[in-house]
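Weekly sync notes, structure subgroup
Attendees: PM, AL, DS (notes)

Item 1: joint prediction request from the bench team. They want all three components modeled as one assembly rather than separately. Inputs as received:
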Amino acid sequence: MYQKKELEKSLNNGLNSLPEEARTIFILRELEGLSYDEIAAQLNLRKGTVSSRLFYARQRLKEFLERDQGEE
Amino acid sequence: MKIYRITLLCVIIVSILITQADEAWSGATINLNVKTILASQKPGRDDPNLERFTSGVKDVFGYSSYKLLSKDNLKLNQENSGRISLPGNRSMKITSKGISGDRVTLQVEMFKNNKQIFQTVVRLLNDSEVTVGGPKHEDGNLLINIFASF
Amino acid sequence: MQENLSHCNSELISRYYDGELGQAERSRVESHILVCPSCNKILEDLKGISDQYGVHLTHQSVGIDTQETEKHVLDRLRREKAPWWAKAKDTFLSKKILFSATATAGVALLLIAVLQAPVPDSPSAIVTSVSGDVSSIIILEAPETRQTILWFNERPEGQGL
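Output from the run, pasted for the record:
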């Protein structure tokens, strides 16, 4: 239970560490399952921008979680 | 926002095109048909070459007759001048200042003894005329009718 | 630690993971992943992040108006199924193009009106300047033809300014 709460906190912190745009794109992809075209239309961005921001978000989250959970 | 930039770009492009179209017209040649007319109170037959002119000014002037003294044709481009000799050691110089919209800007100068005595700048409609008068000559007055087409 | 994978494209793997590649490119990446441990690791990491956040993310916790998002997606699907003329109308009437077209047309009309001739019945000549060493100057207009007439009286000989 404690570990689960710590994990949730870590995941939240990871999301909050992202720039707003990258965070929104990540959530629209992972939660809503929108395609790159749909995300681009929603946020008035180019598709290439969506792709690179999403990749960046995933990289940052992976590094954050590895660092955050590695410190425990 | 992107849409405002696109809008601004469209507006700029259209503006340039429209103003460029206007600039293109100003390169046109202006044809001037200049009639030197003697208007007098002496009764006489109206010159048939002046029928249109006479009918146009009859309500303005009280002359009895109009006589065509000379006819000149000038072809002007922007900033070009043409000179016409007039009776009584006079001359008229007409300079085109370009076309804007559907009017041509002309500077008209009257000289007597090589000295400028009168000048005017007018914006004349296409296929339209302006008349400048009236130095005294003989028993009447000189009227110089300028008809422009471009 | 990330290896420097110059022969692999990490973002391409991300797009492959999201199903955003065309068939040919997808096949190429799939073949490459099979033989490239580094790219395989990247793919596994992507799956790991999705798995963790897929469980974690809830509608309430992230505060996104998913109804608005869903409406937007449904609208797009409806438009895709509409006949071509409805799509064309929809596209033109969308605020963005209408705004742009209206603004451009408005400015174009204004410029044309300014640069074009005024109404036909106007004086033949508009006098913008007049001067002379003369005794008087009169500007007249013939009533029927609206011809502009400039009249000046020369100074008598011997008289000057």
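Discussion: The helical segments of chain A are 2-16, 20-30, 36-43, 47-70.
Action: AL to compare against the crosslinking data before next sync.
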